[in-house]
Amino acid sequence: MHSTLECVAEWMTRQRWYAGKGRVPQLVEVSREDWACADPDARIRVLLLRDIASTPPSLYHVPLVLRTTVPRGRGLQLIGRDEHDDYLFDAPHDPAYVSTLLHRLGVRRDDEAGRVHTGEQSNTSIIIDGGSEAPLVAKVFRLVHAGENPDVVLQSALTAAGNRSVPRMLGALSATWSDPHGSDAHTDEPVTGHIAFAQEFVPGVRDGWPLALEAAEEGESFTADAERLGRVTADVHAALARCLPSREATLGDVVGFVAGWHQRLAIAMADVPQLRELRPAIEAVYDAASEAPWPPLQRIHGDFHLGQVLRRPSGEWLLVDFEGEPLRPLAERSRVDSPLRDVAGMLRSFDYAVGSLRSATRAAAGVIDTASLDLDALAQEAERAEWARAARAAFLDGYIAVSGLDLRAHRALLDAFELDKAVYEAMYEARNRPTWLPIPLAAVAYLVSTPRAAKR
Length: 456
Known about the structure:
A hairpin with a 6-residue loop joins strand 2 and strand 3. Helix 6 (about 250-270) runs parallel beside helix 11 and helix 11 runs antiparallel to helix 12 (about 440-450). It is globular and about 65 Å long. The protein contains twelve helices and 15 strands. The chain is an alpha+beta fold and about 450 residues long. It has helices at about 5-10, 95-105, 150-160, 210-220, 225-245, 250-270, 280-290, 330-335, 340-365, 375-405, 410-430, 440-450; strands at about 25-35, 45-50, 60-65, 80, 85-90, 115, 125-130, 135-140, 170-175, 190-200, 205, 245, 295-300, 310, 315-320. The strands form four sheets. The chain has a five-stranded antiparallel sheet. A five-stranded antiparallel sheet has the order 6-7-8-10-9. The N and C termini lie far apart (about 60 Å).
């Protein structure tokens, strides 16, 4: 038996949402709250734990259920056994916690049995889809920050505005804490941040990423889906601009964006030497954007790609996961930004769908470069490149049709946002998936070499 923190620390290293991969967490308890629940055999303990082994220290939300015995046949996830002889369970898998969480979120249901959605990397989602009531999903934030989480703020605003291109928000839950190890350590005043929310669960939808992969692999056109997705994206952007703050971009804004691009490039070159010879051309694209016209700044999705959209059986698209990039500071994710960042993110996602298939095919065949491919393989790669070009063009056409924003007039700026994304991808792949590095490197080379008038 070990202390609660020792049990949790060892278990956290195996969780997808733990950001300190390859490192042993050093946990400090920041906050503890015990929740009353209807199950007499269960106790709910909600912990906020600061991992001081990371730089900067990360704050994790770890809800636990404590039991004196291990129930059979419930599918609970055991963490360990603490110094008080209690069994510790990961709370989202325990119906006692699910029921209590829903009540605290202000959601009343007769059937509160839930199942944890697999595959998420930064949060834990509990799907409650049994019984006669409409299904819902409760999202438990794992990495938490002081302040309002964009996932709650943006989807709540869109729900209040009647927008049906996002799941309907049902309730949110916050926690309050004081933390000498956090960024708020300069003050003794407690801070508050979101730890969970509930929203409508839409059955029968399909994730955009596997849909695009299947279409690209089979050589099926994705242009109709991409065009509809462009329209929905523009519609959501317009709704966000109406219901949340927006403003014209200032010279200071432009300088800040361009400086950020240059900084990320400098960092990326340390991991990706291939970027060094392209540095002058990359910086020329960035500098051209500083002289280009900028559309107004507003709240945006912030981490937009095919994995963040769902297609209904009717063919309509839903946008989800408005949290932004989870590892970026919350203050950055809560600022107004350019809608072209979202547009560029989706353009890169179409390229990634094709690039991932190309990488998988070459790896399976033991091929390392184009010169090693036979004619059939070369033809297949050409067809998939055309698939991506057509999908990109259709997405832009749909976006322009609804937004009225002439992206041709902002081509230099859109190129810069897409190039910045590709540079970030190159750094990520060099660190995590070296075999995929050619995907963003090809995009960087394309974006700095092809005349803008030819790009769609």
